[in-house]
Write a structure and sequence with these properties.
The chain has three helices and seven strands. By secondary structure, the chain is α/β, with parallel strands linked by helices. It has a seven-stranded parallel beta sheet, sandwiched between helices. The longest helix is centred in the N-terminal third of the chain and has 17 residues.
């Protein structure tokens, strides 16, 4: 069964949420996991793509956007970024959901993580996701962070 983790940040800033997400991705990859980052739009995918290259100058996190020019290499890369209904079937370890919707294929992952800041729309979406998981008996971990 998929392990579910919510990371609830004290900040309202989207940039803080994305920076924390990059650190979480780095930690997961360093532990030997392959990560699929799910976002709402192509613009969001580009934003997290850019940030993964720049958030920490000494870190190298190989990644690509699903449906992009590196699609042939997705199976070899530890990080893939998807938007909308797009999936990356080569990744099964960690799904980091930065989207407001829950992707229908979340259950094939060992772990599901969602990073939430104090923006009302994100809080509302995460509460809905939490309820969905709780209703179905998934093990849920909630982490409230001063970040």
């Amino acid at each position: 069964m998929t392990r579910v983790s919510f990371y609830i940040l004290s900040s309202e800033q989207e940039q803080q949420r994305l920076l924390f997400s990059c650190r979480l991705i780095e930690k997961a990859v360093n532990q030997g996991n392959r990560v699929l980052v799910h976002v709402d739009s192509a613009a969001d995918a580009e934003q997290i793509d850019d940030l993964l290259w720049s958030f920490k100058p000494e870190a190298y996190l190989p990644h690509a956007i699903v449906g992009g020019e590196l699609d042939d290499e997705l199976g070899e890369l530890p990080i893939a970024i998807s938007c909308g209904a797009t999936d990356c079937e080569q990744h099964h370890d960690v799904l980091l959901n930065l989207a407001t919707q829950l992707p229908p294929w979340f259950a094939r992952f060992k772990r599901f993580a969602q990073v939430v800041n104090q923006q009302p729309a994100l809080l509302q979406a995460s509460r809905k996701h939490y309820g969905f998981f709780k209703e179905r008996g998934y093990p849920i971990e909630t982490n409230k962070l001063n970040y």
